Each structure stands twice: as structure tokens, then as C-alpha cells.
Amino acid sequence: MKKIYPFKLGKFECMVVSDGEAFVPANMLFANAPGDILKQRLSDYNLKPEKIFGPLNCLVVNTRDHSVLIDTGLGHLAKLIPNGKKGGKLLRNLKAAGIKPEDIDTVIVTHYHSDHIGGISDKKGKPTFPGAKYFFMRSEWDFAVDQHEMIKAKLLTIQDQVEFLEEDAEIIPGIKAMAAPGHTPGHMMLSIYSEEKEMLYISDVIGHTLHIEFPDWCMSHEYDPKQAIRTRRTILEKSVKEKILIHAFHQDFPGLGYVVQGENGWTWQSVE
Ligand SMILES: [Zn+2]
User: How many CB atoms lie within 10 A of CB 235?
Assistant: First the structure.
């Protein structure tokens, strides 16, 4: 399995770095899907309903002025979560790419789920990226620290390094945070742009390629399913119309591609 995928976006040097993968059962990933259609589509894709593996595609963006990591994978939580045993490989893969934790000066976390925050600190609670500012939507943080203890304890490990975003804002030149709520209350996506080139890092706006074909299918753990559907439809429509390069955290590695109009609705076209 490939672990590193370098590419250029304008003058930015980007690299998808894998954290491995985790699985979710179909009834969680597509909680409201009609049984017969779901069964058919799973068999078309050769997927087993009890274990649908999804990659964890973190992204490094080197803008020359900043070295940015977006989402941190499962980290040591991979060992604590039954469906995450194949995750937690980000640091190893960063090292293979020649990137040291001290090199990263900006960490952007799109939402509080464990596959995105697990790698913010190690199992002793030491921030993984000692020189970095960690960016979080304020609304997401406030919601998350009220959730269960493991999440709260994890987040508090970076409280001395965290900077909050109150609203859509340019975090550093060329990377802008945009609210994409529904999956979680303060779920954010990012527009990354350099020299006329743009890509959207949509994180968990989709959890699987079938959400492109069926944007109304919701994940059982989505905070506000109706809002999640609205967000999903708006962003997918925008990416089809404007032919924007998309990075989706759980799409097949490297998670980069385009959403295109197919004969029967929208489909995914990977860059691979
Ligand atoms: Zn996720």
C-alpha cells in the first residue's frame, strides 16, 4: 500500500501522507440507506458490510513560509480503538518522507473525531509537534471538550499551543478555513490556493465514495444529519461546476480527485 503522494499546487509543495486505515460497518457509514440499494452497491464495490475499510489521508503543505499538517490521524488511539488497529502510522510515514515533527509549524485540525485528533499528542500527553500552532474552530473545541473524557483529555494536551478560529478565516497565506457543519458542529474544510490553482480539503464532508453518488445517505455518528446533507450537496455541486481538485480524508489513497457528472449522478474520478 502506498503511503506518500507528493504533488504540486501552484508553488506549494504538497504531500498526502497516510496514517493507515480504519474500518466502519456499513450500517454506521450509510445509516439511512435503503437496504436493497445498499446491498447492491456494496456488492458492486466488492465490500463486506461488516468491515468497510477507509484510508486516513493526512496532508502536508509546504508553502515555503510555512510547513503545515492537516489532520493528525489516530496516533496512539489506534491501539485503543477496536476498528483502528491499522491506523496510527502518520509519524512513521512522515519520517519516511523526510519530515520531522519539529519541522511542522502549523497543524490544522478539521474536527474532533479520533481519526483526526489522535496524533496531536503522544500517549503521555506531549504535543507531537512541539513548535506548531494548532488551529481549531472555536465552536468545535467547545462542543468537543463537553463530549466524553477521552476526547477532552486528548484535546487539553494541546491547550497551550491552540489558536481558535471564530469564523471563516485565512489561517496562513494560501490556506483558508471554511465552516462545513453537519458531520460535527464545527466541522471545517479548507481552501488551499497558490498561483491560480485551488484545491478543497473537504475532510469528512464525505465518508466514502458512495456518499458522492448518494449525498443523502448519512453516517450514524453525524451530529446534524440534515445539515450534513446540505453541506455535502453544496460542496459536491460546487466541485462539479468549478472542476476543483478535491482532497477527501477517507477516499482511496491518496484521496485526491474530481467529482464529475456521470450518467447516473455524481461520481469520483481519482487523480491516480
Ligand atoms: Zn474521519
Answer: 21
Tens of pLDDT, residue by residue over 126-137, are 999 999 999 999
Calculate how far, in angstroms, residue 260's C-alpha sits from the geometric centre of ligand 1. Answer: 23
Helix (H) or strand (E) holding 269: strand 265-270
Q: How many CB atoms lie within 10 A of CB 151?
A: 18
pLDDT mean across residues, the chain:
96
CATH of the domain at 44: 3.60.15.10
Residue 206's φ and ψ, nearest 5 degrees, are: -120, 145
* Residue 219 Cα to ligand 1 middle (Å): 11
Predicted TM-score of the model (pTM):
0.97
Report the number of distinct structural domains present in the chain: 1
Contact 184, 140 (CB under 8 A): yes
What residue numbers bound the domain in which 123 lies?
A: 4-270
Three-state secondary-structure class, residue 12: strand
74/93 Cα distance (integer angstroms) = 13
β-strand partners of 225? none
Angle 190-192-194 from CA coordinates, rounded to 5°: 165
Grid coordinates of 104: 511542522
Q: How far is the CA of 127 from the centre of ligand 1 (A)?
A: 20
